[in-house]
Amino acid sequence: MARTLVIGATRGLGASLVRHYDASKHQVWGTSRSSSAPSGFPSGISWIGGVDVGEEYAGLTIAKALDKPPLDNVIITAGYFATESFDKPNFQDEVQMYKTSSIGPVFIVHHLEKAGLLKKGSKIILVSSESGSITLRHPKEGGGNFAHHASKTALNMVGKLLSLDLADKEIAIGILHPGFMRTEMTKGVGFDKYWDDGGAVTPDVAASSLIEFINDFGMDKTGQYWAPRGPKDIGTAESVLGSDLPTPLQLPW
């Protein structure tokens, strides 16, 4: 039985992922910021509570809660999104976005590997965003939302470096844009007004695409940056990369 850990599993994409993997008969763990297990999930999912990815202890907490054998899949999908503009930047929000998106994953992967919870053939998926691509930024979208974009750019670099650190152990690192989603997170920052025109999908649809990609993912793509659903929800893709783009789409840094 495959063993899968989803970090940030109580809502949105993470919640859909644990449900999909449980239905596929994986042994599934999910993390929650709360100390108690969330309600409304299948009984087969095991929960690791008290995990805040933006805090230093998160990786050690997860590693201590797991037992061997090692994991087959680790998906880090926890995120934090706050909007800001050039006229109204927010220091604390920026710090939180960097800690959650690009600092926390380093320590989580470190503790899992040092605890013997990763093996040859393990797959680590860092859920990033096309917003982290410097190449895809374009005047049609403008500036602002500095840490939202830059923390994902930093996560992309983290993924590339981890792929180099773990290459000799044959542990593959994927950096994936799951798609523009109809979630409470995007609604909470007012992006629901773009859902229809932007081709936003439900977390269940995004999870299905992500899992299909992960199933075929391996060392041949380690350290690479991909959009499993292709360019359809990336507003600047054709302006920057041209037309007739493939699905899945390898994204530019």
Listing every helix as H and every strand as E from the N terminus to the C terminus, the arrangement reads: EHEEHEHEHEHHEHE
Number of strands: 8
**Main beta sheet: strand number and arrangement?**
8 strands, mixed
Give the structural class. Answer: alpha/beta
Flag low-confidence runs.
none
What does the radius of gyration come to? 17 Å
Which term fits the overall shape? globular
Oligomer: single chain
Q: In which order are the strands of the major sheet placed?
A: 3-2-1-4-5-6-7-8
- SS strand fraction: 5-15%
> Helix count, per DSSP?
7
Mean pLDDT: 95
N→C terminal distance: 35 Å
Task: Give the helix level as a range of percent.
Answer: 25-40%
What's the topology here?
Elements: E1 3-7, H1 12-23, E2 27-31, E3 46-48, H2 58-65, E4 73-76, H3 91-114, E5 123-127, H4 146-165, E6 172-176, H5 184-188, H6 203-216, E7 224-227, H7 237-241, E8 249-250
Parallel strand pairs: 1-2, 1-4, 2-3, 4-5, 5-6, 6-7
Antiparallel strand pairs: 7-8
Helix pairs in contact: 1-6, 2-3, 3-4
Could you list some keywords that capture this structure?
253 residues, alpha/beta, 8-stranded mixed sheet, 7 helices
Explain what this protein looks like in three dimensions.
With 253 residues, the chain is an alpha/beta fold. The protein has seven helices and eight strands, in the order βαββαβαβαβααβαβ. The protein has an eight-stranded mixed beta sheet with strand order 3-2-1-4-5-6-7-8, sandwiched between helices. The radius of gyration is 17 Å and the shape is globular.
